[in-house]
């Protein structure tokens, strides 16, 4: 994230904090993952569910 890559995530390393996707503004988890399963989805109309920051992507 410090290099400007906000929506990448680590795969194949179970339990690593980089498995999740974080909001670039408030740094909260917006998409949580364990393996191939989504464990948290905190987006509302394409915005972070915590701070309302617009998250790039198609969220339909």
Rg computed from alpha carbons, rounded to a whole number of angstroms: 11 Å
Give me the number of helical elements: 0
Q: Summarize the main sheet.
A: 3 strands, antiparallel
Q: Approximately how much helix is present in the residues? A: under 10%
Q: Say how many strands there are.
A: 5
Widest β-sheet, arrangement of strands:
1-2-3
The helix/strand order is EEEEE
Overall tally of structural domains: 1
Low-pLDDT ranges: none
The overall pLDDT, averaged over residues, is 89
Shape: globular
- The share of residues in extended strands comes to 25-35%
In angstroms, what separates the terminal alpha carbons? 25 Å
> Which structural class matches the secondary elements?
mainly beta
């Amino acid at each position: 994230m410090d290099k400007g890559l906000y929506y990448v995530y680590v795969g194949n390393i179970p339990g690593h904090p980089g498995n999740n996707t974080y909001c670039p503004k408030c740094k909260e988890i917006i998409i949580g993952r364990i393996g191939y399963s989504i464990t948290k989805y905190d987006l509302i109309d394409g915005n972070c569910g915590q701070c309302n920051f617009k998250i790039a992507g198609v969220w339909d």
